[in-house]
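re: ur question from earlier - yeah i can do the single chain one, its not a big deal. heres the input i used so u can compare w yours
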Amino acid sequence: MKHTIFYGLTGGIGAGKSTVAKIFTQLGVPVLDLDKVGHQLLETDTQLQQQLHQTFGKGILQPDGSINRQALAQQAFTCPTNTNKLNKLLHPRIQNIEQQWRNQQTAALAIIEASVLIESAGVQRMDGLIVVLAAMHTRRQRVLKRGKQDKVAFESIVQRQCTDVERISAANFTLYNDTDIPTLQKEVQQLYRTLAQHHP
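and the output i got, formated as C-alpha cells:
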C-alpha cells in the first residue's frame, strides 16, 4: 500500500506560510494547520481549559469562562518556564489530533503547517520541511497591516520564534515571498511539481 509523504510547512510571522498552505490546498494537497488545531482545542477542550485556569490563574479567562488567547499568550510567554507549562498541556493534544489526521490520509503528499514547527521539535515527525521566507521589514508591514498585532507584539513573537538562519538550515525546500501573490503561486506550483516527481 502506498503511504503518504508528510512535509512540514513553517515560516516566521508575516512570511506568508498560510498563503502558501492555501495555494497547496488549491492544488489538491491535503493541509493540516496545527496552529488552528491549537486554537480549537483552547475553545472546545474543557479539561484543557480547567488545567490552564489552574496553571495560569483567573486572568486568562473571559467573563463567560472561556480562554482569552491574548491573556494566555501574555502569561505563557513571559518566561521559558511558563512557555514549557503551556507546551506540556497543549502539544500532546495537538500531536494526538495530528496523528488521527495522518491516519486518514490517502494522497501521495500532504502538508502539516505550524508556526513553531522547528522550535517545538515537530519537524522531527515530518518526512521533509518547506520554509517560507521574507525580509523582516516586509513581514512587519504585513503584520501591522492586518491590525491584529502592534509593533511590540510583532517583536515579541519574532523573539519567541527561531531565526531564518535556523529555518534555512532545517529546510529541504525554501520559498521566498518578498514580491506578490502571483509570483508566490508560481513558486509553489513549481515546488509542487518537484515534490510530485519525488513522490509520485
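The chain has a mean pLDDT of 91. not sure if urs matches, ping me
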